[in-house]
Specification:
Strands 5, 25, 28, 29, 30 and 31 form a 6-stranded mixed beta sheet that branches. The chain has 25 helices and 36 strands. It is α+β, with helices and mostly antiparallel strands. Strand 11 and strand 12 form a beta hairpin.
Length: 892
Amino acid sequence: MLKQYKNLVLFSALLIALPFFSFLISFYTDWLFYVETGFPAVFTTTLYAKIGAGLFFAALLFIFAQINLFYANKAAFPHAGAYIVVGSARLLRSEILRFVTPLGLLVCVALALLVGQWGAMQWEQVLLFSNRANVGSIDPVLGKDLGFYLFSLPLLEILKSFATLMLLATALISVITYYLRGGITLTEQGIAIDAAVRRHLAVLVGIFFCVVAAGFYLESFRLLFSHNGNFYGANYVDVNSRLLTYQILTFLTPLAGLMLAIGGWKGSWRQALLPLILVIAVYIIGIRLYPGVLNKFKVAPNELALETPYIEHNIKSTRFGYDLEKIETIPFDVDTKLTAADIANNDATIKNIRLWDHAPLLKTYSQLQQIRTYYKFFDVDNDRYTVNGQYTQVMLSPRELSYADLPSKNWINERLIFTHGNGITFGPVSRISKEGLPEFFVKDIPAVSLADVKVTRPEIYFGELSNDYVIVKTKVPEFSYPTATGNINTTYAGQGGVVIDSMLKKALYAARFKTEKILLSTDITAESRIIYNRNINERVKTIAPFLRFDGDPYMVVDEAGRLKWIIDAYTFSDRLPYSQPLRGGINYLRNSVKAVVDAYDGSIDFYISDPDDVLIKVYSQIFPGLFQPIAAMPADLRQHIRYPHQYLQMQAAMFSAYHMTDPKVFYNKENLWEIPALGDRPMEPYYTIMKLPGETKEEYILLLPFTPSKRDNLAAWLTARCDGENYGKIMAYTFPRDRLIYGPKQIDARINQDSFISQQLSLWSQRGSDVIRGSLLVIPIEKSLLYVQPLFLAADKAGLPELKRVIVSFDDQVVMEENLELALQRLFGADMSPSSAAPSGSKIDLSAAPTDLAKEAMSIYERAINLQRQGNWAAYGEELKKLGEVLQKLTK
């Protein structure tokens, strides 16, 4: 038996040691990563919190359990039998008793380790509680500051759960110990419990009832998160029945526990059970029965009158939870008086109407600019740049390396040679070549710039498709890009990654990534660096796991020509009273952080974009040095921050109901909106450049229309501003409710009913072409609305999409032409071509500086291309002649 016991201990120690060594490897390599990125303080703060929380819970359970076991083992039971009956087996009690104490200790240690691990996972709630702050607003029912719910209540619930677990586990261990020692025996008359055991268990039961009372106390706060009616939060029945019951139970339960403990101590079961029955009765009547009666006979006949104050709480809290209070509602008195002069005055809006949809453009970029099979365009991002002096909306896609498509997969290729993607494809949202293909500002490998946006550092070591690790600065040259004559190699010159300058580090990383090749490779030198956590989403989550990151990171080119990723990050909570939750339970959300990741060296910066958010204030206090104010972001990057479209879509989903601030209107859903859907999917917000009503300058905005619930006409359009000091301002422009304003579904139906368009679509389909109808965009201009929809053709499902037609609708008219300019010309009876805004006869100053001449050359080139599309060959020849003069001057 002793030998078996030793083997058991040895096996247990081995089970603990192996995970411990794995933990040490991850721990040290994680520490090196935090040091590399410049955030060691985040690592240590989190580590201390995990250790502190884990030790607290583990030590508390261990000490409490050991005190109870000490008492259980100290008690003597002289009348205990010589044998223990376990099923049909009879075991000698004296043999078993030798192992009761050590086994009890082992069980307590195992439970303490498990609880310690669980406690370490609560580190965030511990830190939030330790650094809690007041919001400055109180809940309308219990009068607690909202900070109590965000920062204190979660930890109090954790403590209550822990106390319940600790008491039940200790009681179970104590009962088993007493049974083995003879304090609890099974007889023919039933279970016999010794008086000492009864007193011990009575004390535990009394303490347990105090924990139950604490649970009732916390349940009174949880009522504010209930959903028992037509809205979220405590309603009339909750406040006037359940809340009072929980408050009574909070005081009644400890008294019942005390009486139960006294009854158990004395052995008077009637005295012990009566208080328990009383608590159960109060709970059933006050929580289950009476609320139903109250609701049926009082609330239901007078629901609106009685629930009005609670509906007001729900509206106010939800608007605060999703930052809807800042939305400014503005009447938009739409008309149909748009003229050619209005179109000309909004030339920047017209030129920046997005004709290239993300999906067709991604497929087109992949076929035209992928260059090699091992490169891949994962996504297309929308942004704005000043290109050749013009504020221009663009589409940009990084050319990343796809490790799944490497021609030869082996460790050297995947880890040492093919280490990064290369460059971007970058072009305007609305320009079309005569073949129906997109135009480019930046293209090819190495990057060729056809505008004044230059890429000087095209390598992408950190992206959305990056693998888990690569090793750079080795003896093996890194592949940079292919050419017609051979491959161009490169050597990493950045500071990203961890230097592998010792055999210990090689061994640690070999163990972490489960490959001996790192340890044995002779290509790795003392200057080599291992770059890991390369996926940008995982990289920022590793540093700030308490934030939720947007699913659509986007790349920008800074003034120095470096590639940077911008990722929107959110603070969130599911603990805001009365706030309507999203799917998943979140009912408080703020886009408080902009994370920037350098695509070459992986450096990370976190900037606070919403300094008023209470959660980011607390996180900044927890992690000083992690966040910087948005003013610290370089100006060239600040020009590219944009309002997240996923965030606006979520806000719009809430605002569709919570724009109604009158409880009666909200209750009756008199003015409920919805996001229009074309097909099975609702419309998504889209970026555009336009002049907002009352403004004198075009700006980059995010726009989404609304329709009345179960109706197809337009009700409003929501816009979020993205530029400069206006960033984050949201306006809802509401249409008059006394007349019909065509919505997207109605315009889509009109397009389908147009005989010429439907005939042309049928003809293309009969010829085997795949017809792709792009996004239908609503474009407000002056006080009118234009609808624009691009139309793509592809030879088949896998073919190259070509933008062949543009459909434009205004008022009762629908036209389809080869480009947007011709469609507007048909609608408004004037020349809307870009060349009309810039006469070709303007004189060129050949004495200007070379940079100005280069810009002039680009402008002439653009005019020439537009004239070529229009078939104006005479003017086209004039522009080519001017272009020749400028280029000749530049070569001198």
